[in-house]
Amino acid sequence: MHDDATHPRRPVADHAAEIAERVTPALVAALERDTERVTVARLLAAAAAGAALAPRVLTADAVAAAALPGFDNSQMDGYAVRSTDLAGATREAPVALRVAAPVPAGTQPPPLAAGTAAPVMTGAPVPAGADAVVRVEDADPPHFGTPGAATPGAATSGVAEEPAAEVRFAAPVTVGAYVRTTGSDVAAGEVLLPAGAPLGAPQLGALVAAGIRTVDVARPPHVLLVSTGSELAPAGRALGPARVHDANGAALTAALAQVGARVTTAVVPDEPDDLRRVLERAPGDVALVVTTGGVSAGAFEVVRQTLDGLWFGHVAVQPGGPQGLGTVVLGGPGAQREVPVVAFPGNPVSALVSFELFLRPLVAAVTGATPARRPTGRAPLAAPLNSPPALHQVRRASLDDAGRVHMTGGPGSHLLTHLAAATILVHVPPGVARLERGDVVDYWELR
């Protein structure tokens, strides 16, 4: 279906809802369908390289290979004791115990004999026979001696402070005090993380701690990104006369990757047969097609001329008014399938603003990228601002040290370097023709 200039412009919220209705189910289905088994080491390597900008999502429960904790260990620096040894301890009649060998982290201590207390460090194993830990600051003396460390006042004598031969306790201790028991976090064989959990930093740490080496995860949804225009040259190619580099493909590839999508790119001229060939040869797991350019009312609008059955029209937004939406058939004979297609305008700022308004929140919500929606704020204008009253205007801007909004360039949809310099997107709603200096505006944070 083709809209024309006589029809009213579609409100921004209505267009966003239409895109969500078509795109979200397709992305969810792709995540449920396309899974792979990967090593945790590979996920960590991707995170270290900065490649995992959105978390992977588990498609099957991750089961702990080892208990957490794997052994009884001390929650505090203190003394491992037998609680029965301190049953009668009071301030007036403290109980004195002989100090056993200290237990550093990473060592396996011998069993604790009755009538002794073992200095135990945080995370170190609690000796067999001990059933509680008393914090060192609650003991007398309230510190550990350090063999080989000079005592205050003995610097010139070379005398070293020796650990105390005995330690006194002025109160009983409860069984289990300051002891992290084996499996109290998760037992071996229990579900550590359920299917559907996104693998962010805490989850990756838990997988490593529990000895899990491989997990089943959803493959990132695959997006076919098609830049249209006979004037376009792919990034890095030499430019001929009247040619420009494909900024849309570069910017939207990065934007999609940041919210967890895999991207296959194509640049096609304003020739319907070329666009059809790209669609026929699309990878079999593409879940969404995004195009830029070719949606206006000119003589060489290849997307509009090629993709029958789509809605083409204008949304009440500046920049980014011309838009298209529908489904497209991918693949050749015998392997055809329908996927949603979102058609953005070709001007670079229009394409990126359209992505921010209509597509980024949807992809991020499905993949688990955070924040799914840009952080918002309100701030006063540093200078007056004019806006077309029939449109929702989106302007590029930044905040100064006083928290005031400064525009970065004008409203033109070709001013890509001004968008690159912006840190916020300012939203001026329909019905507003002018705002004065000091008027408060709503914005989205970009960084």
Automatic annotation (TrEMBL):
Pathway: Cofactor biosynthesis; molybdopterin biosynthesis. It comes from the Bacteria. Its EC number is 2.10.1.1. Residues 224-365 form the MoaB/Mog domain. CDD domains: MoeA (cd00887). The keyword Metal-binding applies. Catalyzes the insertion of molybdate into adenylated molybdopterin with the concomitant release of AMP. Belongs to the MoeA family. This is Molybdopterin molybdenumtransferase. It comes from Isoptericola luteus.
